[in-house]
Amino acid sequence: MAIQTKQLVPRFLEKEKVERSGIWNKEFVCNKGEKIQIIAPSGSGKTSLIHFLYGLRNDYDGTITINNTNIQSLSAEAFASIRSNQVSIIFQDLRLFADHTVWQNIEIKRSLNPFHSAETIKTMAERLGISNKLQKQVRLCSYGEQQRIAIIRALQQPFDFILMDEPYSHLDENNRKIATALIEEEAAKRNAGILLADLKRVEYFNADRIVQL
Amino acid sequence: MANSFKTIAPFLNTTQHKASKLFSYFGLGIGVFLLLASVQVYLNINQLLKDKNPRKNGYDFISITKRITNENMGKDNRFTVADIADLKKQPFIADAAPLLSNQFRAKASAGTIIPFSTDLFLESVKDDFIDSVPASFTWQPGQTEVPIIFSADFLEMYNVFAPAQDLPQLSSSTISAVKVTLECYGPSGLQLYKANIVALSDRINSVLVPESFLQWANRQYGNIENPPAARVYIKTTDANNPDLLNYLEQKDYRVNKDKTKFGRIKQILQLVVSGLGGFAILVIVLALMLFSFYLQLMIARSKDNLRLLIMLGYSPGWLSKTVARKWIGAYTAVIVCALLLTAAFQYLVQHFSINGQDHLSPYIHISIVAIALLLWLLCIIVNYRLVRKLVFRL
Fold first, then answer.
1. Which residues contact A39 (CB under 8 A, 6 or more apart)?
2. What does DSSP say about strands A161-165 and A193-198: parallel, antiparallel, or unpaired?
3. Do B53 and B239 meet the contact criterion of CB atoms below 8 Å apart?
4. Predicted ipTM?
5. Minimum distance, in Å, between the CA of residue A56 and any CA atom of chain B
6. How far from each other are the two terminal CA atoms of chain B, in whole angstroms?
7. A109–B315: do the CB atoms touch at under 8 Å?
8. Total domain count for chain A?
9. d(CA B275, CA A60)
């Protein structure tokens, strides 16, 4: 089981950036169970890559396959199935329901295809230091707290791969350490692959491979 | 997916514009009630007016003649073979048969018990068209007895005038005992037959003899074979059918107004009820449109949340179904209410407005329930398709 890209090139990206990249216009594979860190400076197309892999955008040339299926051929229903069973995500812009409570934000994802019991939400929130925020509206939480909410939400479902786009940008060192450990633990439980895209190398993340975008 | 609408409800904006939602429910209820009630009234009219004519095996029998006017008075106003063929061709006429009349002089006398003698007209028609045909109503050449079917109206008339003429009044059972002598005058002189009244007819105002006798006698005494008929009997499933009435009017045929007068009333009533039904459909369409605006507004206001739900892995198909299903209960309640209201309306109509002699059911017709069911399905399908279209467009 793998996510694979072949000659993937965003239509909007400058030629020089494509030529320097270890992913664009090359063949790239992330196998199940593999931990890959993608280091990508600003403007190199990091968020676009994550969105391409998650099927949110398709303004690219080349192909992306998940389990040997070209994702451009997938229907909306097939994507829904992949997103609830095989691929989880932490967006850079978090994409939380701002007017709803922290608990509702996590529970809406958990109830879709529960991997954990509702109790686990509390345990994870405690571990990441936001257990006292569970009944609070998300828009009243700090960005760092919201990042932790997004992390906990992404870990509620079964997945073969987890895509992360600068997931720790607003976390302090201690919280980065705890969050990374939690994500790696959860990925190990599912024998899932991790694709972590960030501006620079993330300490504490035990990557099997580091790829420059 | 074990989720239900309850899970996603907090993420949808369903609370705003409640007024338009309630108005659309109210409009739908009124529209459905009007439609169901108008169909029921339509059926009631058909039921009531169908019972107005004496029927045989579900058919009405009407006698028609050509209208005699000052212009056509001198001409031959009898039905030609082509006229009868054209009548038979019409889809609303099951059959047509000419009433054959005697083409010779005929006289009847009742002998010494009832000293009564009169010139007589004889007619014959296919047995199918006669309401009471006893087995004895046959005749073969050589037979000296001729069976007669006599109009019940004629007997009634006779009984009115008989006492003044010192004649005995007769009941319908004793009339068969009266021995009538039938005198037929032809070129070769007078021939006497014994005539027996074998039955009375409520339908045909005439003195009927078997067709075989009249055909033979016309040849024998009148020297005419198959003379054209002045009267034609038509057999139809509904004497009040507007198409039939229009056809007869267009052909300028005269018909017993009594038999068809309800047809005109029915035409007007049906027009009014159809108009009401059309208005009801308009109200239903408007109510559904109002509700669709509410749905569009709700989905537009929840657009960001619905998009995010789909991004998180919620299936758009499941979301459409779940969102659309949310209002099934409301439609069901509205349509059931309209159905109950129609049932109550029909009960009251039967109970208070119509006197007991008309056989109107106090219950709604099964087709009303079927229409309500169809409308229910229509609401569900229309709204599901709309929600699905909007969600998949996100």
1. A198, A199, A200, A201, A210, A211, A212, A213
2. parallel
3. yes
4. 0.93
5. 8
6. 21
7. no
8. 1
9. 59
Cβ-Cβ contacts under 8 Å, A110 against chain B: none
We report the CATH number of the domain holding residue A34 as 3.40.50.300
> What 3-state DSSP class applies to A123?
helix
DSSP string, B69-124: -TTTTTS--SBPHHHHHHHHHSTT-SEEEEEEE-SSEEEEE-TTTS--EEEE--EE
Residues A83, B312: contact at Cβ < 8 Å? Answer: yes
Which of A209, A212, A189, A208 is CA-nearest to residue A199? Answer: A212
The torsion region of residue A3 among left (phi > 0), alpha (psi -120 to 50) and beta comes to beta
pTM of the model: 0.65
Q: Which domain holds residue A42?
A: 2-212
Give the Cα separation of B303 and B305 in Å (integer): 6
Residue with tokens 């005929």: B106
Give the span between the Cα atoms of A145 and A168, in whole angstroms: 11
Range with the lowest mean pLDDT among A12-21, B71-80, B185-194? B71-80
H/E stretch holding B151: strand B145-151
Residues 35-64 of A with CB under 8 A from B: 56
CB of B35 closer than 8 Å to CB of B281: yes
Which residues on A lie below 8 Å from B320 (Cβ)?
none
- The number of C-beta contacts closer than 8 angstroms across A and B is 53
Chain A residues lying within 8 Å of B308, measured CB to CB: 95, 97
> Residue B309: what pLDDT?
94
10 Å CB burial of residue B35 (0-12, 13-18, 19+) is buried
Question: pLDDT digit string (tens) for B118-165?
Answer: 888 888 888 888 877 888 888 888 888 899 888 888 888 888 888 888
- The predicted-structure confidence for B89-120, as pLDDT tens digits, reads as follows 888 888 888 888 888 888 888 766 667 778 88
Write out pLDDT tens, residues B246-273.
888 888 888 866 666 666 677 778 788 8
Half-sphere exposure of B75 (CA within 13 A, CB side): 10
| Six token digits for residue B147 | 């069976």
| Mean pLDDT of all residues belonging to chain B | 83
Judged against a pLDDT cut of 70, whether residue B1 lies above it is answered with: no
Highest-pLDDT range among A43-47, A62-66, B199-203: A62-66
Q: Which helix (H) or strand (E) holds A81?
A: helix A76-85
